[in-house]
User: Fold this.
Amino acid sequence: MESFDGLVEFVAVAESQGFSAAAKQLGCSTSHVSRQVSRLEERLGCALLARTTRLVSLTQAGDVYYRRCKELVTGLLQANEQVSQQQFQLSGTLRVSCAGFFAEHYVAPALMEFGVQHPELSIDVDFNSRMVNFVEDGIDFAIRYGRLEDSGLVARKLAERQMMAVASNDYLRTNGIPERPSQLKIHSCIVANNDQWVFQLDGKQETIKVRGRWRSNNAHTVVRACEQGLGIAYMPKSSFSDYVEQGLLRPVLEPFWSKGASSWIVYQNRRFLPLRARLAIDFLVEYFSGWEE
Assistant:
């Protein structure tokens, strides 16, 4: 059985193109990964990896060996996961990347509920909107909003997001109430993700380029700026619901609101996804199946 030592570490290094990234993925030290791969190369009598100060790449022999070993390692991991699934005792750490009001107020509580159901599982939620490297950062999946670029990642729709335009009563008393989207060009608008606002007009989409005195990619800050009378804001409806119910903000242009974009679960396109991630993704999709803004 000694001949199988180092296979998992070798495959992890080949896929992440680095010993440190592989160690993070496997939850062990970099020295352990390096030692295991070196011993594997010694037993085989050839170099599997070409190491430089910046990059680790496969040699010709390593590429051939990786293609065969990947199937073996995937099969082994799947066998282990099947046993775990039969016992249904999730463990380890589920790492999720997300950002925004929806993630904070809806996704995070859903993940807490999932955590209660699996008391041996740790959950690490990173609120960050930057693009993540799923292997190097050790992220199981991310929650993202809006239009997704074609990145080779797998995306599952989590929820449709209804848009809403609002302003404070003080702002509307001073500047008037816009009756049509085109009138936003003469208003101060609070810009969140972009300054191209999409509305529905006579069954067609109309895009209005807006400008204003305040810009922020944080939903809480946009809402507070709107409450302070700095202009009109346009974001998913759930961002404003509490403020509208309390009478602090007033909806405008309601007949023209668009359906907006969707929130997505995004993860690496690979044949083997850890059981903790698969079950969490399925849980979230089911949890938000009937959700409305």
About this structure: The two ends are 56 Å apart (CA to CA). The mean pLDDT is 86. Residues 2-87 form a domain with the Arc Repressor Mutant, subunit A fold (CATH 1.10.10.10).
